[in-house]
Amino acid sequence: MTRVMAGASILSGCLLAAIVSAPLRAITQEAGSWDPRAAATYLDERQAWWFGYPQADREGTACVSCHTTLPYALARPVLRPRLNEREPSATETKLIGDVVTRVRAWKDVAPYYPDQTRGLPKTAESRGTESILNAVILARRDSSDGRLSNDLRLAFSNLWALQMRTGELTGAWAWLYFRLEPWEGTASAYFGATLAAVAVGMAPNGYASSADIQGNLELLRGYLVKQRERQPTFNRLMLLWASANLTGLLTPDERDALVAEAFCKQRPDGGWSLSSLGSWQRTDGSALDTESDGYATGLATFALQQAGVSPTEPRVQQGLQWLVQHQDTVTGRWSASSLNKLRDPESAAARFMSDAATAYAVLALTPER
């Protein structure tokens, strides 16, 4: 009863916001007036740069980063039809090869961050994080191929073996914590659990219905449901996306409440600001950017569409139009700023945010049907 009432309260508050902000007619500009080729070029170049980045090297493979590699693996395939490409790009092929190498040698490869050099409990955090990211990337690949590969089965086996069965994380996984928001912060284990749900739901051949994983799914659903109310909007948008792939995560009323919460965060210009999606504070004391950005707008409009909100819904159209209007015409990217400190926009760390922003903008503007 409390959960439903809370959802109703959010929904009623957002209805007023919708009346104020919704346009009188649907936006007619199509999401086709952006440059997919430039976006693909930017994403390929950034992933290629990541392969050569010394800090990304892991025994001849590159670690799967939440800011560059994972978004790339999710977004780059959807551009292929727009660009009339028949095969994955060279950087996609290398990425999948690296993931497969580590999945097959799981018991022999070193963790991303071992306890011996990074302190306890980094080995467990590294293993839990990588097991989820590997599964998501291979599930994305297999969903396009329409066949559940042996490598994805092995990735899921690695993942389920590390699922927590005690304490507050029961049903989730240990997740890397470096005090870096929004992917390696205090609430990031929930982010990781939503990605695990996305991977399971995305996997082809009815994997989510497999009898041998139903106990694991019960634990995962239990964690996502139990911990939902204490999550920032950022994680709840991830849950909204996950619920479109895996059943049993949200009731219809809870789904409507999260949709309303997302619309409550929309800015008058039609976009969303990452700073409004959580109670973030920069470690250097500088003020967070509050303007609309590509990552928050891309994630919000993507999650809303995944959850069944029509792209012709006026507020979604406003968000998509914002994305169309804010692609950089020179680089092909969308921009977002760090939640952790004030950074030079062209520094390596600052550009990680643009990598994620560009990928999620592409996902929002190129919905797969």
Averaged pLDDT = 92
Query: Could you name the ranges where pLDDT drops below 50 across 5 or more consecutive residues?
Result: 1-13, 15-31
Structural domains: how many: 1
How many H/I helices?
Answer: 14
- Radius of gyration, Cα only, in angstroms? 20 Å
Strand elements, count? 2
Percent of residues in helices comes to 55-70%
In words, what does this structure look like?
- This protein is an all-alpha fold.
- The chain has one domain: Alpha/alpha barrel (Glycosyltransferase), CATH 1.50.10.
- The chain has helices at 2-21, 36-52, 69-83, 90-104, 115-118, 122-145, 150-161, 188-202, 214-226, 233-245, 252-264, 294-306, 314-325, 348-365; strands at 57-58, 61-62.
- It has a two-stranded antiparallel ribbon.
- The longest helix is centred in the middle third of the chain and has 24 residues, at 122-145.
- It starts with a helix and ends with a helix.
- Mean pLDDT is 92; it is low at 1-13 and 15-31.
Looking at this protein, list some descriptive labels:
single chain, mainly alpha, about 375 residues, two-stranded antiparallel sheet, disordered N terminus, Glycosyltransferase
Concise structural overview:
With 369 residues, this protein is mostly helical. The chain has one domain: Glycosyltransferase, CATH 1.50.10.20. 55% of the residues lie in helices and 1% in strands.
Itemize the secondary structure elements and their pairings:
Elements: H1 2-21, H2 36-52, E1 57-58, E2 61-62, H3 69-83, H4 90-104, H5 115-118, H6 122-145, H7 150-161, H8 188-202, H9 214-226, H10 233-245, H11 252-264, H12 294-306, H13 314-325, H14 348-365
Antiparallel strand pairs: 1-2
Helix pairs in contact: 1-11, 2-3, 2-14, 3-6, 3-14, 4-6, 6-7, 6-8, 8-9, 8-10, 10-11, 10-12, 12-13, 12-14
